Amino acid sequence: MKDTVNGAVYGFPSETGAKQEDTGWSLRIKDQSWVEDTENQVDFIIKTLALSGRERILDIGCGFGRHSLSLARKGFSVVGVDFTKAYIDDANTERQKQALYNAEFYLSDARELQFREEFDVVLNLADGAIGHLENDAENIAVFDRIAQALKPGGKHFMDVCNAEHAERFFPKRHWQIGSKILSLPEFDWDSETRRMIYGGWEIVFGEVARRPVPIGRAGGPRLYSLNELETILKERQMTIIETFSDYYGAPSTPKELQLIIHSVKHC
């Protein structure tokens, strides 16, 4: 599924967010097409970051733990945090069911994380908590928590939507076909707030077809350009090593909505 992009874009609803009471999100995201690409994404992360298996990993905005659980099955020590209780409860259930004692999951606001140089790797996948908070100051605070959690020389891997793409190509529509659901998202751009606006429809396979009902349009995450992210990371003693537009190694480009960044914290 080479065209799979992060869940915050091509699935409704997103995996992560700012306010638990506002989300309305549920575990039905497990049926989304982009979940089917999880193992490929994890393999790409391990290869790109040249991980040995001994690293301790923090997954911020872990959702229901799909990446964290996969990494734990591969022997990594993983801590996943998310602000949605249903997701953390489900991740802990799966952890116990699979006897993955090297994985831990906690209900937490990303801005309140208190880790200090404890992790070899920090992940922000399917946007993680990037851009989903109330204002720019709150969003920037998440980058502070990322930098603080990393050991010197630690690696950061983030998967977000590219603001340059939104500026050039929104409004747009996109079909995303999985084995269970056809998602029909549509996107627009608020140039003042630099936030993505999205809505769309879902058609579940195997159910009687009905006229799609719009789920409405909502303000989405604050998006960043590659230049903005380079500056934000540099201010926190982090350097971008390489960038991609998908989990198959294609170079980053404003022509693609997905922006994947591998950075390293200075020693």
CATH architecture of the largest domain: 3-Layer(aba) Sandwich
Report the top-level CATH class of the largest domain. Answer: Alpha Beta
* Number of H- or I-type helical stretches: 8
Tell me the strand order in the biggest sheet: 3-2-1-4-5-12-11
Mean pLDDT: 87
What is the CATH topology assignment of the largest domain?
Rossmann fold
**What is the rounded distance between the termini?**
37 Å
Question: Would you tell me the structural class of the helices and strands?
Answer: alpha/beta
Spans of at least 5 consecutive residues whose pLDDT stays below 50 are: 1-24
CATH superfamily of the largest domain: Vaccinia Virus protein VP39
Q: What is the percent of helical residues?
A: 25-40%
Element-by-element helix/strand order: HHHEHEHEEHEHEEEEEHEE
The whole-angstrom Rg is 17 Å
Quantity of strands, as a count: 12
Shape: globular
**Largest sheet: number of strands, sense, barrel closure:** 7 strands, mixed
Short structural summary:
Helix content is 26%, strand content 29%. With 267 residues, it is of the alpha/beta class.
Architecture overview:
This protein has 267 residues and is an alpha/beta fold. The chain has 2 domains: 7-162 and 223-265, Rossmann fold (3-Layer(aba) Sandwich); 165-220. The protein has helices at residues 7-10, 20-23, 38-48, 66-73, 85-97, 136-149, 163-169, 226-234; strands spanning 56-60, 77-82, 103-107, 119-124, 150-161, 172-173, 176-177, 181-190, 195-204, 218-222, 238-244, 258-265.
